[in-house]
Structure formats: C-alpha cells, structure tokens
From TrEMBL:
InterPro entries tied to this protein: AMP-bd_C, AMP-bd_C_sf, AMP-binding_CS, AMP-dep_synth/lig_dom, ANL_N_sf, ATP-dep_AMP-bd_enzyme
Coiled-coil stretches noted in the UniProt entry, renumbered to this chain: none
Gene Ontology MF, one: acid-thiol ligase activity
Designated name of the protein: AMP-binding protein
Pfam family, any one: AMP-binding
Domain AMP-dependent synthetase/ligase, chain residue ranges per copy: 33-422
Organism of this sequence: Modestobacter muralis
Annotated ranges, domain AMP-binding enzyme C-terminal: 473-546
Gene3D superfamilies according to UniProt: 3.30.300.30, N-terminal domain of ligase-like
Top-level taxonomy: Bacteria, Bacillati, Actinomycetota, Actinomycetes, Geodermatophilales
Highest taxon of the lineage: Bacteria
Length: 568
C-alpha cells in the first residue's frame, strides 16, 4: 500500500494511529532480546505472586534453548507445547523459537484422540507438557515424538506457597493435585532446564521469513488443520497492535494473561506483544475471578485482553468487593460479540476503554479493531488495522464487490495474513486467493465509513466460551454411539453472547440422551460435549447428500423438534 492514498476508513482511526506501519525485518527472538537488553530489571512475569525479571527470563530462555538443542531439536523441527498459562510456557515458547524451531500449541484439556490426530499431523519430536497430562501425551500414537518434558506448575509458585502445598491438610493436597501429578517416564522440565548449558548468544537464530508457529484452527470449513504463521506474520501483527494503541508506554504496562496462550488471541497479545514493550505479564493458569482480583491488589493491570464473559464477571465481582480496576486503561475484546451493555458497564467501572476487535488464526490473528478513542462504535468490530486492506464481496464470486451497507463475505489482506495450511494445499487454495486476499468465511456489512458488523458465518464453527468447536468432530463422536445413525452439530445463542453446542440426532432406537452425551466425553474435551441433543426424524441435505447445518440451525431455533434434557 506504500505510495497509494490511505483508505477512507483511516480518517476514523484514533489520534496518532498511522494508516500504514513499517514491519521490521525481525524474528520474534529479536523482540524478546531487545526487551531483555532495555528492561533487564523490569518484572517480565508474575505467576500468583512469583516475579521473574526480564534478565531472568532471558537467562531461562537461553538455558531452555540449550536443552532443546541438546535433545536434537534443529531449525524447522516442531516442538509441541501442551500447557496452561505459566512461566514455563513462556520460556518454552521463546526457547523453541530462538533455535529456529516451529512451536505447535495445544489445549491441555484435549483428549488423547484429539491430541493424537494433531501430533501425527505435525510430527513434533519434542513435547513440553503439563505433568498432569504427560501420561496422555506419552500414550499417543505419535511415531515422531522422541521426548516428553513434564512441567510441574507448582515449581513456579512463590516459595511460601510451594511450602504450603506440603502441609498435611486436605485443602493443600487438593490444591497440589490440581497443579501437578506424577509423570513416570517423562523428563522433569525444571531439572533439565536448570542443568542445561545456555545457548550461546552467537548461535544462529531464525530469520523473519522462517515459520514460527503452527496453530490449529477450523478455518472456514470446520475441519481442524494447522495455520502456518511466519515470524514476519507475528511481528507484523505485534507492530500493528502497538500502533493501534499509541497510549501504551514501554516498560511500564501490566498485561493480564487471562486468555489461554494456546489460543492465537492470547498468544499474540500476551506471549509476544506484552514482552515486545517490556510489560509485566501477569499469568493465570485459568481464568479465576478470585485470583484476578487478588492480583489486581498486588499488581494492578493496565491492559486486559479478554472475552465478554471475563469483563462481565470481573465487573460484577469488583463492584461487590470494592476492588479498584481503574488502572485498566485499555481492554480489547474478541472471540465473540461484545454486548453494548457490557462495554458500557466496564467503561463506567474502570474509566478506561474496551473495544471489540476481529480476527482469525489465519491473520495472526487480528485484522480489524474498533478505534481506541471517541470514534469507536460499540456493536461493530471496527476498522481494518494499519497496513490491512478489506473487501466485502459476493460469497459466490469473490471478484464481485458489494456496496457499503450490503451483505457480503469479508476478505482481508496484509502482512499478518498466513502463508497457508500445513500440508493442505487444496484447503489453502480455497481460502487464500492468488493475489493474497484471505477469505474469512464471515458475512458482514461495512458502512460508508468502513466500520464492519459481522452478521453471519459461512464457516460452521461453533464458538463457545471463546473456544472453537468443529462440528464434524462432535458429529463423529455422536455417530460412534450405538443407536445414533446420524447427527448434525450447530451453535445456538447462549448466555453472554456465546453459543451453545447443540446436536440434532437421528436414532435407530430409543436412547437415554444423557447417556449419549456422556459417551462422547471419552473423545471430546468438555466444552465440545453437546449442551443439548434434539431428536429429529431426518436431517436436511443438499442434492449431493451434504447435511445442511444452516437449515438444521434454523429448525432448532424455530423449535421444530423434540429437545433432549439440557446439561445441568
């Protein structure tokens, strides 16, 4: 876009936000190294009260990189992370990138079936995993996997809290069991890193065109696959995000990591953006209102990436307990629609701003955002980021543009857009057009000022609690139950702007629907298990026999079927 007139929507940007950004030719390790050099004594991480300085983080990353090198990890090799948010996650992520390896993030709540399919796809040789799930990873049918490094979360706690876990009390035992478990046969991460020789500073690192990350997503088809993101993609999205919030002050901000790092949204804003500007990153292994409010008293937040339920629950609890959240100057909401009432309540409570953004894993992930200022428009997902182009097109023919106010499929193009799916050339070609435009699969309306409102989805992912559920996975689990002959999974409106996973099922004989739901838990993470089952005589299909999920969804919304018992 250099040398061309700025798009008309840039006139609505917040003051100080440029129409374009210059993406530096850096790799992600260069960003961390710069922060370590500039802010060595500044707190980099805070985990339930245990603080790690930038100098200490840099040393830990060097030791961990040395360990991975000694384990045979080479540039381009995949290193799998199966971890909740914790200091070890941050260290392992940056250590793998420092070597030029490719990080693959995984949800530690996934079942063996879900993890096994992904491990066989990406072929990681080393996995750094939470010791609680280490036996699951060790039991996977993953021929390439050589080494499993087990992380004990309790080792990252402050000393007093670690000692308290050893007390012969029921509460202490329960807390310890929730954080750590024996992992026989796995290599203890903490001891291995402590004994490793640091990787020399002169050791070659990756260049900006190298692949940095494989991030699994359903894309626009709902079939899980890994988006290939380069260092340039990530550095570009960091650069764009920092330009979008010009009020951020290097070396003074406090980011709260309540979003999981195995999700592209939490990864970008916390694992990369926060550390790029020398922010203190406060880590939470899971979103817990009590832990967040306790941290707010200890280390008040200034920047909070989240999802609408986070803002709702924190606002309610903070008001009830008289906890001051007025230090939160900026908040970005994503993954699901942000209710206007929620945004208004949050801004009244904090005096800061909360704006909704739009992204997808294939865009590293952020492509659009509401301005951080008076021109923001609650209820929309905002405007294209700097150096990001947008088109709204006919979904049947992306060469045909829609006029402002008309519905169409959103296309985006920019330096943050991915290079394709891992080993999926046909699916890449379906969403990444020859001239660099990414088909998002979302139906939107853009007004004359460029503000975008999402009105529908072509893609059939269900988004529940900020997590993606791929209908085909749930349908396969349901059809594996004896007596279920067919199934179609859709998302129906739920609380707080999220969706509920609901399945229409065809039965060959009467079944206990609660038992059917329970049977799927063996192969599905808890949030993927259908909230409701609805018995139907048949499923609507296209002429070629494909189940028409959009028609199923419409029928369920109309109540034209017999519902099963909802989950309590």
């Amino acid at each position: 876009m250099t040398g061309t007139p700025a798009p008309h929507w840039t006139h609505s940007y917040a003051p100080g936000v440029p129409a374009e950004v210059e993406v530096p030719p850096d790799a992600v390790p260069d960003l961390l190294a710069a922060a370590v050099a500039r802010f060595p004594d500044r707190p980099a991480l805070d985990f339930l009260g245990a603080s790690t300085s930038y100098a200490e983080l840099g040393s830990a990353v060097a030791r961990a990189a040395g360990l991975l090198r000694d384990l045979g990890v080479r540039p381009g090799d995949r290193v799998a992370l199966v971890l909740p948010n914790c200091p070890q996650h941050v260290v392992a992520f940056h250590a793998a990138l420092r070597l030029g390896a490719v990080v693959v993030e995984h949800n530690p709540l996934y079942t063996a079936d879900e993890l096994g399919a992904q491990f066989r796809d990406h072929g990681a040789t080393v996995a750094v995993v939470w010791d609680v799930v280490a036996p699951v990873v060790q039991g996977l049918d993953a021929p390439a996997l050589r080494t499993v490094l087990a992380v004990d979360l309790s080792r990252a706690l402050p000393l007093a809290k670690r000692l308290a876990l050893r007390l012969p009390l029921a509460r202490a035992r329960a807390t310890r069991a929730a954080m750590t478990a024996p992992a026989p046969g796995a290599t203890p991460w903490e001891a291995a890193v402590a004994g490793a020789t640091p990787l020399p500073a002169a050791h070659p690192g990756p260049v900006h065109t190298d692949v940095a990350l494989l991030q699994y997503t359903g894309g626009t088809t709902g079939s899980p696959k890994a988006a290939v993101l380069t260092h340039r993609n990530l550095v570009a999205n960091v650069t764009q995000s920092l330009a979008w919030v010009p009020g951020l002050r290097p070396g003074t901000e406090v980011f709260y990591g309540v979003l999981p790092f195995f999700h592209a949204y939490g990864l970008m804003l916390c694992l990369v953006t926060a550390l790029r500007i020398g922010a203190a990153l406060v880590l939470f292994p899971r979103f817990d209102v009590d832990q967040v409010l306790a941290a707010a008293r200890r280390r008040p937040p200034t920047f909070l990436p989240g999802v609408p339920p986070v803002y709702e629950r924190l606002a309610t609890a903070a008001a009830e307990r008289s906890v001051d959240l007025s230090t939160v100057r900026f908040a970005i909401s994503g993954a699901m629609p942000l209710p206007v009432a929620t945004a208004a309540r949050w801004e009244e409570l904090t005096g800061g701003l909360v704006v909704e953004g739009y992204g997808m894993t294939e865009a590293s992930p952020i492509a659009l955002g509401n301005p951080m200022g008076p021109t923001r428009r609650p209820g929309t997902v905002g405007l294209p980021y700097p150096s990001t182009q947008m088109r709204v097109v006919d979904p049947e023919d992306p060469a045909v543009d829609r006029a402002p106010g008309e519905r169409g499929e959103l296309l985006v193009r920019g330096p943050q857009v991915f290079s394709g799916y891992w080993n999926r050339p046909e699916e890449t070609a379906a969403v990444l057009l020859a001239d660099g435009w990414l088909r998002t699969g979302d139906i939107v309306v853009a007004d004359v000022d460029g503000f975008v409102t999402v009105v529908d989805r072509i893609k059939e992912l269900v988004i529940t609690g900020g997590f993606n559920v791929h209908p085909s996975e749930v349908e396969d689990a349901l059809k594996a139950v004896d007596g279920v002959t067919d199934a179609a999974v859709v998302g129906l409106p739920g609380a707080s702007g999220s969706e509920e996973v609901v399945a229409a099922v065809v039965l060959s004989r009467p079944l206990d629907l609660d038992a059917v739901r329970e049977a799927t838990r063996a192969s599905l993470a808890a949030y993927k298990v259908p909230r409701r089952l609805v018995v139907v005589e048949d499923l609507p299909r296209s002429q070629i026999g494909k189940v028409l999920r959009r028609q199923v969804r419409a029928q369920l919304l109309a109540g034209s079927a017999q519902p099963g018992t909802p989950e309590p």
